[in-house]
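Q:
Got a chain?
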Amino acid sequence: MRFQDRVGAFEAEAKGRIRRALSTGNAKLMELDEALAKVAKDDWTVPALKRQLVQLRTRAETIRASALKRMQDMPGDAVSKIATGTRAPLQNLARNLAEIARRFDPPRPKPVSPTEPQRDAKAEQKAANAS
């Protein structure tokens, strides 16, 4: 291979790498441009931010009010369901509560396995019986 061929191969490889770098760079620039376009659509002025905060605050207050109302209604609903419920739903409720309580109980201790000398004694007795 001559020196001129080596330089030509090196030049071709360098051109290929430069093209790949440029195409990757252009793709990344396009992604960045799309992201900037999304951010540029939003209104970042002080009045707009204040309006968004007010909207979020009112949404939070309505969610809080509905949650409080539901919490206040829960005991009444439970009492009315217990009072009007039949025996089967109450038994299912009691069974489910007992199952939940069992999950909170600590696990029972495992039984202790017999020790090695007892096993050897059994093996010796079997050997004595066999002879």
In short: The two ends are 90 Å apart (CA to CA). The mean pLDDT is 80. The chain has two domains: 1-42, 43-104.
